[in-house]
Amino acid sequence: MTKLLEPALDRLELLHTLVRIVEAGSLSAAARQLGTTQPTVSRRLRQLEAYWGVQLLQRSTHAMKLTEDGDNAYQQAKSLLERWQAMDADLRGRQAALRGHLRVLVPSIFGQEQLVPPLVQFMKTHPEVTVDWLLNDRLPDFIAEGIDCAIRVGRVDEPNLVAIALAEVPRIVVAAPALAQPAVAAPSADPAQPRALAQLPWLALRTFYTDEVALTHCHSGDTQRFVITPRLGTDNLQALRNAALAGVGAGIASAWAVADDIAEGRLVHLAPQWQAPPLPIYLIYPRSSWRPARLKAFITSMREAFPQVHGIQPVGRG
User: Fold this and answer.
1) Cα gap 81→30, rounded to integer Å
2) Three-class SS state of 119
3) Second label for 81, Cα 20 to 30 Å away, from 117, 132, 217, 220?
4) Residue 301's closest CA among 104, 83, 90, 135?
């Protein structure tokens, strides 16, 4: 006789647990994402295996692997859950208040300064949606970390991700006044020309440039390139800004991040008619046949809010 499932436990919840185990990569990670304990997740897995009379996972001390039956169950469970969620969202109607939780990964500095106002507006519009606002510049493992979407500055080349272009970040060359003045005062130096900057000590934001600088004229579109040997390399915009303020070297920074420093004379905007190529800003999420209504609303909210975000420009304007 087939063993019955616990009546108190919804079968869809069991299927959701199976999908979480597979996509999180372990029972403990699945438990964290589901907000429960590892023994509970393990018990649910055993229930499914007993109910179907098959082994779904092969587990050892260091690894976990789906059996053939387990892979079949996972694929069908994922498809069934997506169809159920789509039907549930459709039948509840668009007028129902959005509920649930979003985990969003955003750039560490951009996300704590420029993006908080549009986030706050979204949360005011949808007061029953809660958000984890995670500050990190890396590309996440969406499934394993339970990330719903991310806002990323820079190119996105992952074919399994949907990337929505939101805006661009203008970038300029800056240096401390004490560093800039001797360089541009030389007889052969023209402070309006990028090549005059090659003699300066340099800072590299290694996420975007390391040993070569390319600058484009704002009006003519001409591009000049020159080689640099950085005194300091970093992967953090704030660290680059602080090093520039200290006079360590010239660097290419997001214009919004150094606007106050330039206005108050702490930094000088060098070759002001020239800019580095702007960085694209994308909202990215995994490809799927279904997206929860709260994620759709967040995407719409960000697309509407970004034209008002300080320090960025529309796509293609730079």
Assistant:
1) 16
2) helix
3) 132
4) 104
